[in-house]
Amino acid sequence: MATIPQDRQLKTALPGPASSALSARAQAAIPRANSATIPAYAAAADRGIIEDVDGNRLIDFASGIAVTSVGASAPAVVAAIQAQAQQFTHTSAMITPYEGYIAVAEKLNSLTPGDFPKKTSLFNSGAEAVENAIKVARTYTGRQAVVAFDHAFHGRTSLTMALTAKAVPYKLGFGPFSPEVYRMPASYPYRDGLSGAEAAARSIQAMEKQIGASQIAAVIIEPVQGEGGFIVPAPGFLPALQQWCNDNGVVFIADEIQSGIARTGTWFACEDEGVVPDLVTIAKGVAGGMPLSAVTGRAEMMDAPGPGALGGTYGGNPIACAAALATLEMIEQEHLLERARQIETLVVDQLSGMQAQDNRIGQIRGRGAMIALELVQPGTTEPNPELTAQVASRCREQGLILLTCGTYGNVIRLLPALTISDQLLTEGISIIEAALNETKETN
Ligand SMILES: *Cc1c(COP(=O)(O)O)cnc(C)c1O
After folding, report:
1. Which of 131, 330, 376, 419 could cysteine-pair with 362, CB 3.0–4.6 Å?
2. Hey, which residues does 255 pair with through a beta bridge?
């Protein structure tokens, strides 16, 4: 277990010499397409801090893209991994299954919204979960069309690239894309000014006119859009979509890969408006850093594909299952749903103070420990990707690991571990504030 002091410390300029040497090796050995946001190589990580190979301690506002919500070396998770590895690392759940898989399925069946019989199938990555949710929806409905939305991100495999909205860097040059995927307008209240009901009516009308309800197998949506810019849809949008799906025999899939597992202060972000999806895709935060993903949903839908039709060599790996059980238990025992809401209060409070002084902060939005700032040209709603890149880069130089996102590249997103200290949170945001202020002087 890593027990790194929970404070920021810069011993060298970033990247330091040991990281630079690794960067040189990486350049020769790894394609440029596998680029890294911050060329500081990790040596250890724990809660709010990543220590690099030069001994620098960086504040972590990324959690490995919303993965290490309980921390990157939580003692209970590490112990569960060690204990399972000593018994066996793999047998394949498709050959000689094991209890951990069932226990994870039972847990996810009970945690996901909906008071009806559910079943869960396990996979490795988020994209794989999305692909399999679509397979389930297509076999269950006997229909082919799948609806995704503007600003959506669902992964980088062939089908999920088709579902993903943004061309660069995810899609450009990688076509042809999977057929029978349709893109509809979403709800982006800051930019479209529509109420949830208006935005839903627009999407529903487009689905009916352009595809035909009877042709649609599934509608897939992120309840809070992640890569697209931490976009929280206007209230009423998701419930109206869900209702329309229910009325038309369309499978409603909530992609909770980024927004789920306590991140927004509830187990799943769709709970905020009482939305009950037919299928939920789960990954990222579910297993304390181990690769594990899941599709959880209505038993009759999950049972539509025949024996052997779902699965994979590694799906539901026993070590990943042990890590997931420890992670989910830790979220309960350490009250991390509540902690996510505390983080929201603390972060939004500090950011609101900054926004009052800075008309380049267009909007602060998000829920729980999934909060973003959308940066704009002063006093307008015009996206400001240059400022966003500048601020992120200054923060990284100061030892704050910070991610951007958004269709227009103008959103700074905060995804700290739920186990980060208040002090590191405050310090991290002060670094963002200082970076914004410095750019005021140069702009
Ligand atoms: C990250 C992400 C995915 C893809 O997950 P991978 O594990 O990278 O394949 C899918 N959907 C959403 C909402 C995501 O944030």
Report:
1. 376
2. 281
Q: In a mutational test of the pocket of ligand 1, which residue from 128, 159, 222, 258 has the highest number of ligand atoms less than 8 Å from its CB?
A: 258
> Position of tokens 């899941």?
294
Cβ(337)–Cβ(202) under 8 Å?
no
Q: Rounded to 5, what percent of the chain is helix, strand, coil?
A: 40, 15, 40
Strands 361-367 and 293-298, how do they pair?
unpaired
Q: What would the mean pLDDT of 78-83 be, rounded to a whole number?
A: 98
Predicted TM-score (pTM) of this structure = 0.98
Burial of 206 from C-beta contacts in 10 A (0-12 / 13-18 / 19+)? middle
Nearest CA to ligand 1 atom 5: 126
CA distance 81 to 321: 9
Average pLDDT over residues 281-310: 98
Nearest to 75 by CA among 319, 323, 255: 323
Rounded CA separation 221/186 (Å): 9
Task: Give the Å distance between the CA of 429 and the centre of ligand 1.
Answer: 26
Spacing, Cα 283 to ligand 1 middle (Å)? 7
pLDDT at 440 over 90: no
- From 63, 161, 284, 295, the mutation candidate for ligand 1 (largest count of ligand atoms within 8 A of CB) is 284
